[in-house]
Amino acid sequence: MLAALAHCGETRLRELAHHLDLDMSVVSRQVAQLELQGAVVRRANPEDRRSSLVSITPSGRAWVDALVRAHTDSVAAATADWTPQELTTLTTLLERLRDGLSRRMHGTEPRDDAPDRSGTHASPAPLP
User: Which parts of the sequence belong to the HTH marR-type domain (predicted)?
Assistant: First the structure.
């Protein structure tokens, strides 16, 4: 949630819930907890008093930055002995996964160049 706020900036709770594909009640409870911890601030939406705007605080951004650094360091250590080809394969597969998840969330059809999943094609070689 903090990463989404760091990326999107100030947003309505409903838009944040939609972005995260979560129920509004879940987002509202989590934002309340993050607010108590000083990671986010919530304010009335001046354009629509029925809704709230939420944004990340400098403290919340510091948490996100620390988590990104820790994650980056962890992935770098775990793949330190991988070949460039293995890293390229991982990147390609993660991009396919991201695209598939995005299509699922947005209800769009697979691309025309998407691989055949009918089971009639040859299986890819296993990763070493």
Answer: 1-99
